[in-house]
């Protein structure tokens, strides 16, 4: 059982984080907490000029609202949206939050493969990593 679990939540087309949240709930020690985290890739500079004013803030608010609804099913859950390259940002969050387990999905299009982010995290995390296929 783990006391501090990090669940990275992606918003790729067709992605559903219910499996990862269910696994985190099963692995959670009494009194522990789950951190739901979304990492936003930086927008290409050329694309920013075509976006309406305030688009990023609206997107962050929508993601936080969705994460909050997911967090309602977990005891003492935390949510966060950060910027960065996902693999590195997730490992930075692991260190900053004292995470002892990361639960994340493997490759989206072919569950028999591990995506580059999942592979990076599995190789470089200093805590337990549960990859969900």
What does this entry look like structurally?
This protein has helices at 18-27, 45-48, 55-71, 86-97, 116-124; strands spanning 2-8, 28-40, 78-83, 101-105, 128-132. With 133 residues, the protein is α/β, with parallel strands linked by helices. Helix 4 (86-97) runs parallel beside helix 5. It starts with a strand and ends with a strand.
Write the layout of secondary structure elements.
Blueprint: E1 2-8, H1 18-27, E2 28-40, H2 45-48, H3 55-71, E3 78-83, H4 86-97, E4 101-105, H5 116-124, E5 128-132
Parallel strand pairs: 1-2, 1-4, 2-3, 4-5
Helix pairs in contact: 4-5
Order of helices and strands: EHEHHEHEHE
Instruction: Characterize the overall form.
Output: globular
Averaged pLDDT: 88
Task: Give the DSSP E fraction (strand runs of 2 or more residues).
Answer: 25-35%
Radius of gyration: 15 Å
Strand order of the largest sheet: 3-2-1-4-5
Q: Based on helices, strands and strand pairing, what is the structural class?
A: alpha/beta
Compute the number of strand runs. Answer: 5
Which regions are unreliable across 5 or more consecutive residues at pLDDT < 50?
109-113
Q: Assign a percent range to the helix content.
A: 25-40%
Termini gap = 20 Å
Q: How many DSSP helices?
A: 5
Described by strand count, sense and barrel closure, the largest sheet is: 5 strands, parallel
């Amino acid at each position: 059982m783990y006391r501090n679990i990090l669940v990275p939540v992606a918003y790729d087309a067709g992605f559903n984080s219910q499996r990862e949240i269910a696994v985190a709930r099963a692995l959670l020690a009494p009194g522990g907490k789950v951190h739901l985290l979304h990492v936003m890739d930086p927008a290409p500079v050329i694309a920013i000029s075509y976006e309406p004013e305030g688009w990023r803030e609206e997107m962050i608010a929508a993601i936080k609202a969705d994460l909050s609804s997911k967090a309602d099913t977990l005891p003492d859950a935390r949510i966060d949206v950060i910027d960065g390259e996902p693999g590195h940002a997730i490992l930075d969050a692991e260190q900053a939050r004292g995470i002892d387990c990361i639960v994340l999905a493997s490759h989206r299009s072919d569950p028999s493969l591990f995506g580059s982010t999942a592979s990076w995290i599995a190789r470089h995390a200093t805590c337990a990593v549960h990859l969900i296929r």
